[in-house]
Amino acid sequence: MSEFHEPVLLAKSLDGLNVKAKGTYVDVTFGGGGHSRAILNSLLGGLLISFDQDDEAIKNKIIDDNRFIMVNQNFRYLREQLKRLNIYRIDGLIADLGVSSYHFTDNGRGFSLKYDAPVDMRMDQKLETNGAHILNNYSANHLMRIFKEHSDFNAPQPIVNLIIKFREQRPINTIFDFKKIFQGFVSDRHQNKFFARLFQAVRIEVNDEINALKELLAQSLELLKPSGRLVIISYHSIEDKIVKRFMRFGNFSGVPKKDFFGNHSQPFKIITKKPIVPSREEVQLNNKSRSAKLRIAEKL
Ligand SMILES: C[S@@+](CC[C@H](N)C(=O)[O-])C[C@H]1O[C@@H](n2cnc3c(N)ncnc32)[C@H](O)[C@@H]1O
Questions:
Q1: Which ligand 1 atom is nearest residue 216's CA?
Q2: How far is residue 171 from each of residues 96, 162, 167, 177, measured CA to CA in Å?
Q3: Whose CA is nearest to atom 9 of ligand 1?
Q4: Which of 51, 68, 77, 269 has its CB surrounded by the most CB atoms within 10 Å?
Q5: pLDDT tens digits for 198-231?
Q6: 24 has which bridge partners?
Q7: Between these two residues, 127 and 102, which has the higher pLDDT value?
Q8: Is the pTM of this model over 0.90?
Q9: Of ligand 1's atoms, which has the minimum distance to the CA of residue 209?
Q10: Pick from 213, 249, 238: which is nearest to 293 by CA?
Q11: CB–CB of 192/113 below 8 Å?
């Protein structure tokens, strides 16, 4: 297993991308480079451009290979960055969303419950807002919204009340401060799940993950050639719903657009009617893959 990140659903996602040897492909979430390396194995005369916003992931970049270009940017700047490289059309795009295993095992980044690091949670270390800033400064209403929208807590008021009460006494600086706020709030049995949801909400807000995903998808529609493939692996229901709607309707509202004649305009042929999930064997080997959902669509 790669120490940085073990690629999830590697064979199925590569199948889905349907790599043509001379094609131009984009991997917008390079991480440890597992998916990127597999794409390169199929390229002969083609090109792969990989993005990552995290400086540590950039250190894994593939060197001495003129089929490969690494871009250290948020994937929300996809179109602009490709234009800089004189690329206007692509044959396929893959996104393996969220953070990598490295983020959880590095004890200083604030992604893991286990280490008493500052509540940071930024993938891009140049971002101004980190998790501590959000917890210490967001209004009660704003906190309510992020716990509802990013983690599906139906009634987050008690959670927000505890945060506000704690921060009136002293700032929330570290992960263990954050955990202390909720001492006795949930039973030991439910703690891990509860904190995973709380952390997810804060992390999504810090990195503006939902907006970045929507911007990426909208740009992919313009950039993909007809028959080009869009391959997305997501890890929670909020992302998966966005991807599913976008593949079906080309928008995020879930309402199909109609053309002049009243026909539904469909931007993609859906290749995966239901999302592909990892096999039991894969989950056994790599527990972090357990919530993965892979969706594939082909540009019409
Ligand atoms: C799940 S990992 C990808 C792992 C990769 N497929 C592999 O095989 O190693 C996600 C990676 O995407 C990066 N990432 C997440 N959101 C991003 C965004 N909006 N822009 C650029 N990189 C992003 C993270 O920094 C992380 O390294």
A1: 19
A2: 34, 13, 5, 8
A3: 32
A4: 51
A5: 999 999 999 999 999 999 999 999 999 999 999 9
A6: 47
A7: 127
A8: yes
A9: 19
A10: 238
A11: yes
Residues framing ligand 1 (Cβ under 6 A): 5, 7, 29, 31-35, 51-54, 57, 74-76, 96, 98-100, 123, 212
Residue 255 confidence (pLDDT)? 85
- Closest atom, ligand 1, to C-alpha of 35: 8
Name the pairing type of β-strands 268-270 and 293-299: antiparallel
Q: Which amino acid is at 150?
A: H
Q: Which of the 8 DSSP states describes residue 107?
A: T
Q: Is the dihedral of CA 134, 138, 144, 150 positive or negative?
A: negative
Per DSSP, 235 falls in state S
Locate 147 and state its tokens: 């716990």
Buried b (16+ CB within 10 A) or exposed e, 149-169: ebbebeebeebbeebeebeee
Q: Which domains are seen in the chain, by residue range?
A: 10-101+210-299 (3.40.50.150), 109-208 (1.10.150.170)
The pLDDT of residue 261? 80
pLDDT digit string (tens) for 228-250? 999 999 999 999 999 999 999 99
